[in-house]
Amino acid sequence: MRTFNWAILGLGNIAHKFAADLALVPQARLHAVASRSLAKAQDFAAAHGAAHAVGSYEELLSVPDIDAVYIATPHSEHHAHALLCLRGGLPVLCEKAFAQNVRQAEEMVQAAQQNGVFLMEAFWTRFFPAIKQALELVQAGTIGEVKHLAADFGFITDFKPESRLFAPALAGGSLLDIGVYPLFISQLFLGVPATVRAVATPAPTGVDQNCAMALAYASGATASLFSTIAATSNNNCVLYGATGQLHLMGRFHAPSGLEIHRPGQEIEVIPYPKTGLGYHYEAAHVQECLAQGLAESPLLPLAFSLDLMRTLDAVRAEIGLRYPGE
Q1: pTM to 2 decimal places
Q2: Topology adopted by domain 126-274
Q3: Which of 144, 178, 201, 267 could form a disulfide with 242 if both were Cys (CB 3.0 to 4.6 A apart)?
Q4: Which Pfam family, an example, fits this chain (predicted)?
Q5: Is the domain 4-122 a CATH 3.40.109.10 member?
Q6: Mean pLDDT throughout 46-68?
C-alpha cells in the first residue's frame, strides 16, 4: 500500500489538530512542517513525529517526496501560499475560507489547472459521515422539499486588534472565520442563493463582529444564518421541510448525528460516534483522490468553493467590509 507523505504549512492551533488526526488515517504520514520560525517548526515536528522541519515556507518546496500540503495560515495568506505550492507541483488542501475573495480563489484554481495539480478547500464539515447521511435523507425526500434552513455559529473572544480575528490585514471578522460555515451548509443543501442580504456590527478595527444573513433561492427556499465572535451561540443547523425537520446534532459543523422530527411521531435519532477530532475524514478523502489521479474532489469540487467565495464577497458588499488592497 502506498504511504502518503503530508506537509503542513503554517503551524497554528488548527495545524496541531490536523496533525493529531493525521495519525488516524491509514497510509498517512506527517513528513514535513514549515513555519516562519525554524524553532517553532522543529518543536512542532518533534511533537508530531515529522521527519523534516523548515524555517520558511519557500524551503518546503525543496523537501523531497511530499505528496500533499495542508495550508493552515490565516485567510489573508491562503492565496500566496497555495500559489507557492501549486506552482511547485505540490497538491494542496487549503483551509477555509478558501481565499480572501473570489479573484484570489480563481487564481488558485487557474494555477492548479495549469500545473495539473490537485487542489481542494479544507472544508472538513463536508466529509463527516452525518453530513453524507443528511444529504441522502434530504435527496430521498425524508422531510419533503426543504423550505428553510437556519444555522448559527458563535463564540466569545477577547478583543485583540492585532489578532487574526480582528485585524483587517489578516482578513479578520466573524464572517470569513466562522460565518463561512452557515453559508457552506446552506449552499450544500440549497445551492447558490439568488438573493443575498446581510447586516453586521463592526468591531473597533472595522471587521464584522456580528453578521446576520438572509438568503433566498430560485426554488422558493430561504435561509437565515448568523455568525458572531461576541457571544456564544448554540452552533445549530435545522432544515425545515414540507413534511418534517432535520436537525444536525451537536455542533453542526462537526455533527455527531442526526435527528428527524415529523409531526405526530417520535423523534428519530441517528448517532455517529465520534472518532478523533474529525479532520481525518478530509485527509483520507484527499488521499483517495490522489490515489485515483484526480485533480479535484468529486465531493467538494472547485466550482463549489468558487461559488461559496462569490457569496462571501456578496455578503461583504452588503455589510461594507473591504480588506486592505481590495
Answers
A1: 0.96
A2: Dihydrodipicolinate Reductase; domain 2 (3.30.360)
A3: 144
A4: GFO_IDH_MocA_C3
A5: no
A6: 98
